Amino acid sequence: MARGRTEKVLTTRFGAGAGRSLDELIVEEPLSIRLDDNLVATTMRTPGHDFELAAGFCFTEGLLAGAPVTTCRYCATGAAVETGFNVVSVETGGRAPVPTPRLGTTTSSCGLCGSASIDELAERLAPLRDAHAFALDALASMPDRVQPRQPLFAATGAVHAAAAFDASAEVVLVREDVGRHNAVDKVVGRLLLDDRLPASTLGLFVSGRASFEIVQKAWAAGFGTIVAVSAPTALAVETARRAGILLAGFVRDGRLNVYAPERLD
User: Fold this and answer.
1) Which fold has domain 136-260?
2) What is the per-residue pLDDT across 24-61, written as a single tens digit (0 to 9) for each?
3) Active-site positions?
4) What are residue 32's DSSP bridge partners?
């Protein structure tokens, strides 16, 4: 199941073009993520690239603890059709520690971070030292480079995008989802399954704000640069500075604000 799904819904328009018509809306469904058949979390997501999402989530939350992913599969609790392709198990052959499941469902609007503080993150993640340095004008061009590769947003206007870009500022991977954190996990999961982590030569673009969990996931994956269309949070900036990540926000119309590091030389 690759591309996300949409549904046609009958709607009533008022004002210009008033009348009845069909709108294309994004589908949002729960995905239960299991690690070696142990329930980890349930997240609301856009169906599509589910293996990437599950693997990326387990990696960015530190659940793999260095264990390699041997396979990803649907079901684990019954036939995939019976569970609506809404249960994915990430397999490590028992090498990963037994996870502590999250209580409740992670919503599509914000991620629930598995680490409660920056200090806890720093206990398992070292500051990034050798990440590629991008020219600021290249970072400012990222929204225009990614936008043509956002078909779900073009169709519905209701999803976020995350993208990885290379040293020449060329977009190498784009994923869309109703949740910003899910889109990032899908990008990280793809890189993980392709054995391309840590992502020290790549930058990360996100189409919304840069929150703490976005910076956390980028740090875990080894991205040394984050480009966000909207603002970062104060905690995201503090985390990026601690991690050694260049964090740029309000990247639009050829302009940007650099929030981390504290100053550029």
Assistant:
1) Cytidine Deaminase; domain 2 (3.40.140)
2) 999 999 999 999 989 999 999 999 999 999 999 999 99
3) 110
4) 42, 87
